[in-house]
Design goal:
6 domains
Amino acid sequence: MASSDEMKAEIISYIAKKHNSYNSIAVENEIDKMISTEGLDGKPLINKFYYIWKNTLDSNNNSIKIGKHNKINSWTAYYLGITTEIPNGEFLEKRRAFARKGFPDIDSDFDYDHQHEMYQYVIDKYGRDYVGNIGTHGALKLKSYIKRAVKAIDPQKFFADTKEGKERWQKETRILGDEIVESLPKQFGAKLTVKSEDGKEHEINNVKDATEYIPNFRSYIKKYPDILEHSENLLGLVSQFGVHAAGIVISSVPLCDIAPLRTSKIKDSVNADGEIKYALATQFSNDDLEFMGLIKFDLLALSTLSVIARTIKLVKQNYDIDIDIENIPLNDAKTFKLYQTGKLMGVFQCESRGMQKTMMEMQADSYNDIMAGIALYRPGPMDSIAKYCARKRGEEKVEYFHSSIEPFVKPYLKKTYGIAVYQESIMQICNSLAGFSITDGYAMIKAVGKKIKSLLDKYRDQFVSGCQTNEVPKEIAEQYWDKFITPFASYGFNLAHSACYGFLSYQTAYLKAHFPEEFMISHMNVILSSNKQDKYQKIAQFEKECQNMGMEFLPKSINKCGWDYSIVSHKDKSRGILKSQIRYPLRCKGISDKAVHDIIANQPYEGFRDFAFKTTGNKVDIKAIECLAESGFFKDSKGKKIKKEDVIKDFSVLRNDMKKNARKGYQSGDLFE
């Protein structure tokens, strides 16, 4: 590999031969900057740039234009023929990725129904030995290690080498540990903080901190001083191993050659024989794997994508309409009306009451409003929602902190009415106002987020000094840093995330506005297929919302209900259908999938006896009948729900009699219609 100086000389010589005149100063400055700037591989950027250029040359030493866009605004790339786009800004500075010292995470969102297929695809493509889940380590935190310390120390000497003694030791140390932990204040968020008598806020990270600032806790430590001595030894110790929810690594060599591995049970996954499936997982955590040169890939499952896919499929079936969901109009009045009226159940990122209220107050009428609402509705920036809404409505003047600062920050805050909403806004302001490179701006945001004091002090001085260069008074610069830059940098949301979330939110709102039955049905079916503990509570909320939207649910029927919620008919006044009609699924709370499949496979049934006779005993058992009865699937001839006990009793009698040669003459009411 040629040296940096040799690469520079070769590039300049090539450009001089190809162009009679060119911007030599810009080219030399760019090359010098690439020599002095480190890439993600730890080597000067010129190495990568040189490699790309050499690979664009054909046999006649002419460059094959490989790109139209010129994202790094490089005159050098333009003169070399790598790109056809003339630079229109500052070289390299827009490429935030160069600020990273480590590798980026690569996140991919997939339809919830097909996430496992993507994981299997990666294994099939790269090989089982080259792909692994990322292991995680659960460390003992304050409350956990206090309980462990109490159990190990046994300060009240309950332990005795007898069965009764062990049982008493387990019970009493658990009670004491819980009692001590309950003396700590409730924790809200990631950090436990308390206020001392002088009003100052203190972060509680260990037993010493808790002893110093929490009087109730201090009384226990005085009584049991061994807890203080020994619990410090437990702080941070690994208590359990886990697996990253979606993170995997792909290696160029077998993973076992570079990292210790272990088997990990795949959640809710069994093979055809009913055996639990296992996957390989690294015993190293992500930080260690990154240090070794591996990149984390997140294969994320997003149920919203499943909702969209199912809705589009239903629309095609019902109306023969093909929806190009990636190219829907972004100015649809019907869609924005949902945001403005707060009717957002099922709309991505906007389902909570707080978010519905935010969109109503904001009277969102543009894609930018949706993005801003999603970015603002989180701890920290939430306080700015009222100001954003007031300024948008013209009820409050848009201000930019101080007249000396306004010319530098207005271009980046104008769309959000003077409020910093995104991380990128902070980076651009630091660049414009204080002369930060985008690299420094990105590093500053990371320093603020991690509260690294040495770096914060460094960037504060750099910021104030840069502002003074632009004739901003020192006092104003310091105030702006303390009151505006650092608070917003600590919780500012990423613009790219907001844009993606906003678009997904808009897509779901569009589908709900134009195809409400298909959208709501798809949403309920996705929830029903999930493993969430609260899925039936959510289902109940969606059913109520459907009724509020003018849909009606038909009576539950063993013969007519199937696997999913389904649309029986759409509202059509010309046919006398005043409300869209929805059919319940057989999948009710508590029933097994195999029971539902068996019931559907044997439909229709002539009566209760036929139902008991046709269904398979080890699939549709007493438990399944109990679930169906509780959900109202069994009714008498008058349509009244039959008591669960009566249904179970009749079913048990029929099943027992059938084993002995079916009881004759059994007549039942119409239980199904």
